[in-house]
Amino acid sequence: MSVVVLAALCLIVSNLLKKDSSSWNSGKYSAGGENLFANLDVNKTDKLTVSSGTELSSIVRNENGWTIGEKNSYPADFRKIASFLGALAEVKSVQNVKAGKSQLEKLGLGDGDREKGNAVLVELSEESGKKTNSILLGKMHFKKEENPNPFFGSGPDGRYVMLLDGKFQPKLISLTFDDIGSSPVSWADKSFVEIDKIKSIDVRKKTADEGWKLVKNTENETFSLSDLKEGEELDPGKIAPLASFLRNASFQDVGSLPANFAGDTAAIETFDGFKYEITFAPQEKDQYSVNIKTTADIPSRREAVKDEKPEDKEKLDREFKAKTDIMKEKLERETAIGKWVYVLRKNYIDTLLKTKKELMKEKKAETAPAVPDPATVPATDSK
Description:
By secondary structure, the protein is of the alpha+beta class. 19% of the residues lie in helices and 28% in strands.
């Protein structure tokens, strides 16, 4: 995204910060303190390094936008980066904390706190490689309440930080930065495929009789099994999750697609012309490696409707172009996703893991009619 967009998002963050700082306007704390990054130019910042313990994330801006070095230049979350940089540019201290160097560990700001994973080090650099700012994020600050909630307690309302400028001056700020971590995947763009209006889904497994294919003739129909045999009945409850398949899916990890990646597959076709080839293989801890390749048949021209009036043509052409532009943008975004392997929790693809037999309604066991006990049958008089 452009520098202009980055600056605009940072301005929005600035206005939110001014609003949120009102709760710190008291006799003990002053929201009008020192601006910690008064000279920070977000538009010149081209590298963000975040580290804690053994984890390190190097987020770099280049010709492809913001990418993550530790994930083979996987796209980073632009909005998260813009929000964080905008917050840093505006954040002010609400209190200088009186603490000697030997007391810094109590605030999570000691020499070894980053190595122990108790603090997060953030370093900003320009394109030239020159490091412009460094800050250590320490322990959270919790407001003391007279009548705290006995069940949930109170959440953090600030954080102890320290600029690495050689002054060893801890400060308290009114932001928590609780989403700023050193895990590379936490900075990844979490945009994913959006599979809607499924027309057919063909699951192919290593054992042929475990595979299955569901189809619809129209959007409003329910799925039917393509080769349903006599005595078999599809269980609607077991295929219900397909209505929201992969919707809001969040991946646990991501990596480059290996040349030899293999597993079971599912071919999905939608009513709007998109086709997905999904390959999935088990990992450990109820997780699966998943690769999704997307193609689409997007019409290049609109077919005129019967008895179309000339005055309607412009409107219909405009609507057609708007629709196909959205489809092209979606295809471009989802085609890029096909270059990677994602680690997903099992529940996101659980329906694909079922065999054909597991999609069927369970047959109720037939019980033989009860035979009366002769001892309980009343005797009849015979003549």
